[in-house]
Amino acid sequence: MAAQHKKKIAVMTSGGDSPGMNAVIRAVVRMGIHMDCDVFCIYEGYEGLVRGGNYIRQMGWEDVRGYLSEGGTLIGTARCMAFYERPGRLQGAKNMVLNGIDALIICGGDGSLTGADKFRAEWPSLLEELVSKGELQQAQIAPYKHLNIVGLVGSIDNDLSGTDATIGAYSALARICEMVDYIEATASSHSRAFVIEVMGRHCGWLALMAAVATGADFLFIPEKPRDDNWKEEMCQVIKQHRSMGKRKTIVIIAEGALDKHGEKITPVMVKDLLADKNGLALDTRITTLGHVQRGGTAVAYDRMLATLQGVEAVKAVLEATPETETCFIAITENKITRKPLMAAVKETKEVAALIEEQRFNEAMALRDTEFSDQYKSYAMSANTGFSDEVPCQENEVSWLRFGPPVIMTNTLQKMRIGFINVGAPAGGMNAAIRAGVAYCRTRGHEAIAIHNGFAGFARHHGDEPLGAVRQFDWLEVDGWASKGGSEIGTNRELPEESGMEHIANLIKKYKFDALFLIGGFEAFHAVSQLRKARSQYPSLCIPMTLLPATISNNVPGTEYSLGSDTCLNELVAYCDKIKQSASATRRRVFVIETQGGKCGYIALLAGLSVGASAVYVPEEGISLQMLTADVMHLKEVFAKDKGQTRAGRLVLINEKASETYTAKLIADIIREEAHNRFESRDSIPGHVQQGGVPSPIDRCRAVRLAIKCIQHLERFGPKAYERPEDISKDPMSATVIGIKRSEVVLSAMKDVEEKETDWKNRRPTAAHWMGIKSVVDILGARADYPKPV
Ligand code: ATP
């Protein structure tokens, strides 16, 4: 009986490689061992399964050390023709039985997962055939009557239906955006146009997200083929962008770009058009990014996704029964879930077929919500030629077909919206402002910058605002998509500190119809103060909404703040480097202090992404007992380590995890206890954590969420202050936007303040991410860890 022997799980990577595959392998091997299974790696994908022998190897805990920071797949991948045919699969089945493997976890694209499902469906008949041919005995196959398979989607294209992200897609996107950012500098210097081709034959996700993140001038993706007049359309858009004084032109084109008749649109066609001497006559170059898009180490997001999905895959294969449908592990707006595999593969194939048949709207409908949402975001923030296809909110207006944002006269009702940053800078703040301003202008609203937070606003003398309040200059704002920091300036001061009456008077003076705030916990606190002061100051009876942006990710009302992804990437890069620095000495522990205030999110998530031996967070605190257990654990690890460790070990500690046990003290304790058998150092990355260039995730989410914020403010119309009673009574007139569970939600500030806020510790009452702690502890071999006190 299968239940009586020790479960044996195998993991393989198949199809094209993608960043994060190694994190999958590490997670499956370690989680499998933790669950008391034997874990095998099948090298070279299905090729290794068919060949057997040394291609199938049992893995130990230490074999996957260092895997998180390696790109590609360390167990190899291959395309295997033999597996398409039954004899190949028969051989694969035989090798599985000979190695006693009863469950298979496959990380690959839709082809690999289709092959896996076929293998599982045929499994009983393959075993029968092996017995009938005398290759195996009945007794040999008896424990393996049923095969459990779980899929993990490793693909840079993000082309599998049913999941918001595939493993590797965000790393590829990061690489693309990095390249586009580099190209932009030279494009601007020489006033050139660049046509950048990115991967994606049937799926325009990479191209679309890159266009959103970089604010590209024009975009071609297979799902949204261009009209017959695409040439005129593109030239007109670019001409208008140029006429505003823009010195660079970026056109992003997916490999599979088409026109509406299914004819290919190539980078050469686009280039010829832009360079045409009788037309725009732009000095135009083509850059085909090619395989750099696959390269490099995984970004923090992919490491987390791959690790959490790998852990979930092990649980899924162990829980599966003969009746369970084959599943794959998906993610929907931050939630790891199991979904039926073949339904997703079928839908994915349908998208490709629909594009082939030129049924583009149906193809688009099958893409997930985030894809279509981002598509709308691009249309709304980039002023390209297809915004007419984007339904506006309730007040339908004829969308501008071409060109730069132009103030519309026939809009709904024009509003004056004040934009303000509060708190410390965070990646994505500028992208959010850029998107908000673009949307406002296209909708006919006036977007007004309030510089340097409430302190800057309050620094106002007589009738002269000293430049604290200014209309945005679009040409300047247009270049902010990839800029870090806060271009309009930010400040931690709260309205009450600046003087609430003074702030209320200024809001009245400038006739703001709405406020759009972007910032961290201070911004949250600021909205709370403004909301509560409404009874005293009617000018504060205007709609206001907060887009959370802080590396600490401690704003109530959302599970995710802009800037936290950028911060995680910085921390991951920092930790990778520091770990590597120890490779010469080999026996060193680094105790790294992260920011985050009283919220341990970035410490924990960075710990997950770099494979920390221990993570200390304020939510748990630190006890002497915990420290003792960790020091003992490190001693054991180094005692067992006969020099095979390739790099140092990391301990991550949030800056406020304990008042007494600081990074330095913990490093000292470890050093003292190590008795020269290993070394220990503390290290504080400090403000590096705010990051330089914001990550594409932060930039894309900034665009999507900022537009939703302005759309929400828009619903109240102008002069809300003339209806103070109505506004005060409407809980949705002061809101915070967030990603919660599987949705983007706007929540009433009052509710969030009262029910979801731990004011003392300046963080949400519930730490949605704490469940990940057990994964960090398990994969860091810290599972028998003493409970926090
Ligand atoms: P990518 O997204 O990089 O294309 P993929 O997994 O879709 O990844 P494929 O080349 O389609 O890549 O598939 C990888 C391997 O999976 C194939 O070489 C083959 O061995 C196996 N495979 C794919 N499709 C099938 C199928 N229909 N039946 C059996 N095996 C298959």
From TrEMBL:
Q: List where in the cell it is found.
A: Cytoplasm; Mitochondrion outer membrane
Sorted UniProt keywords: Allosteric enzyme, ATP-binding, Cytoplasm, Glycolysis, Kinase, Magnesium, Metal-binding, Nucleotide-binding, Transferase
Q: In which pathway does it act?
A: Carbohydrate degradation; glycolysis; D-glyceraldehyde 3-phosphate and glycerone phosphate from D-glucose: step 3/4
* Reactions the enzyme catalyzes: beta-D-fructose 6-phosphate + ATP = beta-D-fructose 1,6-bisphosphate + ADP + H(+)
Q: Name one GO molecular function term.
A: identical protein binding
Q: Which family does it belong to?
A: Belongs to the phosphofructokinase type A (PFKA) family. ATP-dependent PFK group I subfamily. Eukaryotic two domain clade 'E' sub-subfamily. Belongs to the phosphofructokinase type A (PFKA) family. ATP-dependent PFK group I subfamily. Eukaryotic two domain clade "E" sub-subfamily.
> What is the protein name given in its UniProt record?
ATP-dependent 6-phosphofructokinase
Which species is the source of this protein? Xylaria bambusicola
